[in-house]
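input
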Amino acid sequence: MTDRHSHGTVLELAGSLAHEVTQARLTLESLAPESEAVVVCRRRRIQLLLSQNTAYDLCRAPHCQRHPIGSAITTCTEHLGDCDARALAGMARDWGYIRRDDAERDPARLGGRSEGDLLIKAAVVLGTFERVRGVLLDAAFGDPNLFDDEFSDPAEALAMQHALERERLRLHEVGRAEGLRIRKTISSCTGCGHQLYGWNPVIPPQYCHKCAPPQPAEHPLYAFAD
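output
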């Protein structure tokens, strides 16, 4: 990538990686001369359009050509369900913080976002709904025990509390609908073949409680996934 067309692209890549560690190592995943290249830095995959002086993040699933859902949700929609519980919690945390800033902590704007729904649906598949929902709500809304201290007007604190509870319930309904949808398409446990009933938020919906795989050990830093 030394021809005259790629100089601007390399500068775009340098800017994109400016916040990474100073000795970030790049690995070339693929190269189409005169057209594009895909490089990997840590877990990031970056598409370099050599003739357009641009660089875009790609989904972190190897060889996927789709773009990620957003800066915090680093896979495409198709591969979000392939993430593990720790990665989903980390993305939920990052997305929640970004949403809190974007909405300027306005209770009328904080909830009801499709990106959050996608995280919840992926968490349902893993049986980690409660974990991911808790991280997302904490990041987006903050600690409800501190609302009275953060808001000088009691009405504002109450509005935030109500918004938090509305979103907690709404996400529960999103998760429940996804769990029941999956159970309807599967109908029987993939482990023992017995019929499946209802939805349990801490069990992957394709299993009964006897066949569900054990949940990974809770890590105190799980919410700080890369």
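quick obs: The longest helix spans residues 154-186.
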